[in-house]
Amino acid sequence: MTLNRIRTALLAACMLAFTACAANVAAVAPNPPGFVPRTVTVLGSGDVLIHPPLTEQARQDAAAKGETGYDFSQILGSIAPDVRDADVAICELETPLAPPQGPFTGYPEFSAPPQVLVALKDDGYDACTTASNHTLDKGFEGIVRTLDELDEAGLKHTGSARTEKESGTPLIVTLPNGAKLASLAYTYGLNDHPVPTGKPWSVNLIDVKKILAAAKRAKKDGADIVVLSLHWGTEYDHLATPTQLIQAKQLLASPDVDLILGDHAHVIQPMQKVGDKWVIYCMGNLVARHSQPIDDNREGVLAKFTFTEVHPHVFRVSRAEAIPVWMQMEPDLRLIDLPRALADPATTPEQRAVYQNARNKIAGYLDAYGAVQDGLVVQ
């Protein structure tokens, strides 16, 4: 190719790019006069995984107050200011719930005390997702009981359903400023538990096409923001699997999915900006006490995203934050809000060293894919 031809080709390519850019700019209509952008803050958190030692701690805490039953408020209370600060706070309820009097069971077939919902509600959570590999630990009866108890506690829910109609109705929360947020939840599998016969709608299983259809339906039903919770990945792996990476790109490429909150691995996985959207592959545990507690399964994060309206009913994340949390094992089981504990002058030097180390490790895991450079703020 001659030099003149090269120059001509380059000029044509530049003109084509300029024309395409101009067309895209022209396609964005100016905001109407008097347009005032709204903001919505969304907070997600890791697995609520009530092992038997947590149930026993809740019993002891109730007894210390001269009460019977189970009090989870002291275990979970430290995060309340952060949870309440969000416009919409979504918890991940990993396990089915038992009747209030039990029996309560732990791994591998969970049936957790419903009294934990009182603490979650008091902390400021608005909704819980219920799609996990443990959803069917107690069969369809466990699904019904869990959702009934969530209703009684005043917590919205998504991810499993009692009826086909409920399954097909997206959870949409309308905020005081009029913005509407939809929450969808799906799981990779069910620990080999068969889906109840005749009830294929009872648990949401990850299927990209079905998720995109549900997100589109939610937007059609009025949702301005669609938050997708996914129970996925490999347990105890701090990096996302190839499947997670592929699915995140496929899902976030849709105009109908605005944010992905990940759970299941029981450890922190990275946060990542994909285009102009965000995914956190796993938020670790919120509250758990594994039979073999190690630092990794004691670490979690409250993932907080501020959405700002850029055009009427079009929202984009303007700020991504991570609030590290840590499960204290002694002398009592307590969830520690690490930034608050580090800022507290009453924290001892020994505690401070532990907390700072946990915070730094969590920050490192979150930044494995360059999230800090893309704007993530780790508190």
Number of domains: 1
- CA-to-CA gap between the ends? 56 Å
- Identify the CATH class: Alpha Beta
Give average pLDDT, whole number: 93
Helix/strand structural class: alpha/beta
Please tally the β strands and state the result: 15
- For the record, the CATH architecture stands as 4-Layer Sandwich
**Approximate strand percentage:** 15-25%
Treating each run of at least 4 consecutive H or I residues as one helix, how many helices? 12
Largest pleated sheet:
9 strands, mixed
Quick one: CATH superfamily?
Metallo-dependent phosphatases
CATH topology: Purple Acid Phosphatase, chain A, domain 2
Helix content: 25-40%
Order of helices and strands: HEHHHEHEHEHEEHEHEEEEHEEEHHE
Outline, from the CA principal axes? globular
List unreliable stretches of 5+ residues. 1-27
Question: How much is the radius of gyration in Å?
Answer: 22 Å
